[in-house]
Amino acid sequence: MKQIFEALEKDARLTPKQISTMTGISAAEVEKTIKKAEKDRAILKYKTVIDWAKLGEEQVWALVEVKVVPQRDVGFDAIAERIYRFPQARSVYLASGTYDLAILVAGKTMQDIAVFVSEKLAPLDTVQGTVTHFILKKYKEDGEILEGGEEIKRLPVTP
Amino acid sequence: MPKTGSSHIKIPRKHISQKVSNVSPSGIRKFFDLLSSMEGVISLGVGEPDFITPYHIREAAIYSLEKGYTMYTSNYGLPQLRQELAKYLESCYGLSYDPDSELLITVGVSEGLDLALRAILDPGDEVIMPDPCYVAYPSCTTLAGGIAISIPTTEENSFEIKAQDIEPRITERTKAILIGYPANPTGAVMPKEELIQIAQLAQQHNLLVISDEVYGQLVYGVEHTCLASLPRMKEHTILLNGFSKAYAMTGWRVGYAAAKREIVEAMTKIHQYTILCAPIMGQMAALEALKKGDSEVEAMVREYDCRRRVMVKGLRDIGLSCFEPKGAFYAFPSIKITGMTSEEFAEKLLIEEKVAVVPGSAFGHYGEGYVRCCYATSLPEIEEALKRMGRFIERHRFQH
Ligand SMILES: Cc1ncc(COP(=O)(O)O)c(C=O)c1O
Fold first, then answer.
1. Whether the CB of A155 sits within 6 Å of ligand 1
2. What's the B99 CA to ligand 1 centre distance in angstroms?
3. Range of the domain at B279
4. Of A6, A39, B79, B326, which has the fewest Cβ atoms less than 10 A away?
């Protein structure tokens, strides 16, 4: 069954029939497995990794470190929930180390992100402090090298 | 005036030896020129992985260069590499080879094969091998002064070489049986029972078996049996293997030979004068591959397996009958329904649809009627190639 998900993770557009050919598992079985995983939210969504810069679209990303005071009974979960409901927060992680929450924030401009941090994030009750790192350049996204990736330099015919 | 060597009377001399003239160039190379002048070709004609060597292996080699490892190594190869290999062969196949005298690091299986043949053959000695087989087997045998004796293997027998077909061809001059399973070009894997029969034959007639197991790690749903691991076979086997295929390291040129001391010593005699040692960068990379490369090999095998299924099903869907390959990364479909020779087929397919495959006849008489399609190529490319081949078959199937 693992092969089904490995195939889908690499290429979300594969049809159950294609996956069936690739894995030797029957198409009906593949379809059933995928449906169930979607229902259980083991498959969260199907997405496309896009290099927006290449399309001429401005997009700004920042990694925001957030230090918070954990709360009785709910620990970090309550504050994390307050934060992850904002659509600007694209990914939210609890991290070990000198800060507590790591948040990937996306916006159209630096101003967007600055406003989000200063007006939405920083004023939250239990937030003690934030450090915003603007992303200057993306080299690798979701396992894909954005530019200057390695091409295969094989000769077309070999023994 | 005394005559000097610069006399103007020219004696006709053949500058190329008879032995080399007798060897024909590899049939695979023929297509190369035609192909390199074309654009938009999808090549299923390769014989190597489309993966780049895993990064940690490359990084280990880079690090070794930074540290100044740029010298010759021992003729036998880096001691650490041989020790690691001995451990590996022990844990994989329960074999025990002495790293100081029974292992030799070579420049790929290619050199190992040449050394093995040259070490054991006297002029006129015979070597029994399957047909079709890897292009180097008969030619290297000839170059080593031996005579290649081909045993037909057929699709009906799953392209396995059978002990009962070998036995009648054994003569006083027979020195060795040369096999390579999982096989290039057929993808056949020899079941253990069949190998046992061959092992018994080798022991009865006191023959050596040269076993090229370079695709040994690339098997799908079946197990690879290392010939030397069969009872009493270490004495009779020259095991050849390397890093090219399993670890995607074709350009590094590292392989190894494992055999009893007497044979490794003989092979090393040739190796020390002709090669001296395998390149140290490659050996450093191989060491890293052996120590930490397992998970990448597994991932690549899983990927090849997916592509294998797509390739075989695709070939069958377009109307070609295709033997189910269980190892290596080749499918070997029959093209007999087109009535063309395999060379005609490959040439027409290349010109009309820009798909390169290798004619089966490049691998021996019994490869005629088949073509070799390598599936070490990305899935989208395989699918596009199959589409083009489908059109081609549609046009040509009823013509003859
Ligand atoms: C069956 C077989 N043996 C040996 C080789 C050569 O391997 P190496 O790169 O280790 O010299 C190849 C390469 O195509 C092969 O297919």
1. no
2. 23
3. 56-292
4. A39
- Residue pair B222/B192 in contact (Cβ under 8 Å)? The answer is no
Phi, psi of B386 (to 5 degrees): -65, -40
Predicted TM-score of the model (pTM): 0.89
d(CA B376, ligand 1 centre) in Å = 15
- Residue ranges with strand state E in B113-195: 126-131, 147-152, 174-179
- Residue B6's contacts (CB-CB under 8 Å, 6 or more residues apart) are none
CATH of residue B330's domain is 3.90.1150.10
Q: For every one of its 400 residues, what pLDDT tens digit does chain B have, with 9 covering 90 and above?
A: 555 555 677 888 889 999 899 888 776 666 777 788 888 999 999 999 999 999 999 999 999 999 999 999 999 999 999 999 999 999 999 999 999 999 999 999 999 999 999 999 999 999 999 999 999 999 999 999 999 999 999 999 999 999 999 999 999 999 999 999 999 999 999 999 999 999 999 999 999 999 999 999 999 999 999 999 999 999 999 999 999 999 999 999 999 999 999 999 999 999 999 999 999 999 999 999 999 999 999 999 999 999 999 999 999 999 999 999 999 999 999 999 999 999 999 999 999 999 999 999 999 999 999 999 999 999 999 999 999 999 999 999 865 4
Residue nearest to atom 4 of ligand 1 (CA): B109
Query: Quick one: B257 and B271 in the same domain?
Result: yes
Residues B163 and B230 occupy one common structural domain: yes
Q: Name the domain count of chain B.
A: 2
CB half-sphere exposure, A2, CA atoms < 13 A: 3
CA distance B185 to chain A (A): 9
DSSP A117: I
Contacts of A18 in chain B (CB under 8 A): 310
The answer to whether B275 contacts chain A (CB < 8 Å) is: no
Distance from CA of B313 to the nearest CA of A (A): 7
Whether B11 is in a domain gets the answer no
Please check whether residues B158 and B97 belong to one and the same domain: yes
Residues B233 and B367 in one domain: no
Q: Which residues have a Cβ under 8 Å from the Cβ of B265 and sit 6 or more positions away?
A: B101
Pair B216, B182 in one domain: yes
